[in-house]
Amino acid sequence: MQTFSTRPLHAVLPLSLSLSKGVAGAGLRQGFDRLSPERSEVQHGVGSMAMRGLQIVSAALLLAGMVMVGQAQAAGEIVVGQVAPFSGLLAPTGQQLRAGAQLYFDAVNAAGGVHGARIKLVTRDDGYRSEDTVAQARQLLRDVRPLALFGTVGSRNVLALIDDKVLEQAEVPLVGPVSSAPSVVVRNHPWVFMTRASYAAEVQKIVAHYASTGTRRFAIFYQDDAFGHDLLPLAEAAITKAGGSVVARAGYERNTTQVDAAVKTIAAAAPQLVLMISVTAATAEFLRQSRAAGNTAQYATLSVDDAEQIVRLIGAEAAGGLVLTQVVPSPASQTLPLTKEIRTNFDRFAAKGLPLNQTLVEGYLGAKVLVEALRRCGPQPTGRRLRDALNSLHDWDAGGVTIDFSPTRHLGANYVDITIISRQGKLLH
Q1: Fewer CB within 10 Å: C terminus or N terminus of the chain?
Q2: What is the distance between the alpha carbons of residues 197 and 169, in angstroms, rounded to a whole number?
Q3: What is the pLDDT of residues 103-129, one digit of tens each?
Q4: For the whole model, what pTM was predicted?
Q5: Are residues 38 and 84 in the same domain?
Q6: Are residues 308 and 364 in the same domain?
């Protein structure tokens, strides 16, 4: 039950709402006197009646103040925070995710916001370092008190937020992280909502595709951290199940492009296909050196890699033939409502020179999921209400891509496609 203060009016109300000294009591006493038919007989009770009157006025004014605060919040801002790499090797990934989210937020704000509130995206750079992810997230939560976090990049980075209890302590959900590694998925953390298919589904798609064409000799190039270690045994199991064998395994240090030793190890094994569990810059450098060394194997990598960046880093000739899985549709698709919507808003709101690619689409999709949950929260959202609203997104159609969350399922999508970079450096679907 809501309770109200019984302190004097000037003590519980802002100065602009308090009454001049002596006026309130005198006015209320005069009013009560006029209402009393036997003033002389009840005069001793006027003081207590006046106090009760003051309490009623105080309660009414406080309630009005609460309503005005609620209206101001509804008409104000909803802050969303993003801690991601905006410098270093993965800066393009963080920047494109931010651009996709901002594109959708701009469209929502132009249409009046969410229950009248505009969405503001505030970002911090973690350089793809998990310790900085935690530090920057805590600082962001203190500084601007976001209602949600969005678009954190990296399995280790997401796990750091979980293990350090950043999300549950703040009661703030993380929506659309760029990680769906087994170690993240298996947690089914109550405050983490993934808007992409699992890495496991991507690996299985690649292995099944190549095994069906007669490929039997596989090599695995992987990042030497939680991302790579999670997927290495899963990839090996998928290859064995498909009738293939792993002829070589080689890792590289996280947040580097030190791939020289891995290139030599894998080339020496003469695989038919190299499955790469790596991020864009390392993937590009490994591919460049492998081509230069004369390794004629086929190469396939996961959706965390950005085809456009790979072509920019090593050129179309070296990048040509690289296969990439995708967990969102091509922005060039003419058939899906989601991609038609993205192109329309891209023409209206995107900054000049901004590339329209799958990473931007992933950011846009995550932002769209977040906004749908905000709408379901009503005009007074909280972290808990937002979490519950996200859990209510059962078989929700985001425009040809289905999102399916529940309290027991926070891996919300299963879309996986295979693409290839052409000899002209274009991504073909």
Answers
A1: N
A2: 27
A3: 999 999 999 999 999 999 999 999 999
A4: 0.81
A5: no
A6: no
